[in-house]
Amino acid sequence: MSDPTSSPAVPPESPPKAQPRARVPKTVWDLVFTLLIPILILSPNIFGSGVSVSDTVFGGGTTGNIRAYLLAALIPVVYVLWDLLVNRNVSPVALIGGAGAIFSGALAFWYVDGFWYAIKDSARSYLTGILFLISAATSVPLFRVFLDASSIGEPPEHRAASQQAMRDPAVHKGLVLGTVVFAVIDIIGGIINSVVNYQRVVAKFGSDDFNGQIAEVNALMRVPSLVLSLLGVFAAVWLVQRAVKARYGEGASLFEPAKLTQVMREKGELRA
């Protein structure tokens, strides 16, 4: 029999819920696998320790340096393809990125130095620029593919309105101009990268110095290359948005499909 003077039983406190771990942003992983790890693999003296992947893993010498060079070049390729497969991302933009990664991986087996290495290191930019310029003369400028991908998750009505707007002749001209500007800036970025490589990567292919110089240039050029790429994107987007607003009014925007749909409906231009 319980003691009437005793305090009622207090239920034990439930353990605090575990807080979900903060996820590492994808941008960080991108930098780790496409920049940091390749630089460490190429470095002949990692963090001043006297250790290098070429010597420690591959036995050093020309053979070791070439293997380290290939490993550094192929890790970003594998990372991009793995990301595509895991996320099952089959959008045109993702597929273009995957094709570019494969192209870069294939070029790794072109063993050159000096002038031709400088060209090779920017070949992806040159190819991208040329393809964009060619597409500008077609009915589907490649910059439209990027913009179209941004509306994939939208409701069918909004997506249809965006696609109709991009087919409009006035907006199409903006897409063509934006595609050309993006291509030209990408090619300019490639030329700058080639010049820097030509000036700084002067050692013979397969040497310690060659790998070290590549690592230095990769670290030096990543931010400027990214800034130039973003400049090309922003310039192209501005040109397209200007065309959209001139055609449908200030409230219209390809990046706000709901507003664009409403504006087109009010103007009586939205097709069923």
TrEMBL record:
Source superkingdom: Bacteria
Alphabetized UniProt keyword annotations: Membrane, Transmembrane, Transmembrane helix
Segments for region (Disordered): 1-21
InterPro entries found in the cross-reference section: UCP028137
Compositional bias of kind Pro residues: 9-18
Keyword set includes Transport: no
Transmembrane regions: 27-46, 66-86, 93-112, 124-147, 175-199, 219-240
Sections of the chain in a coiled coil: none
Protein name, as recorded: MFS transporter
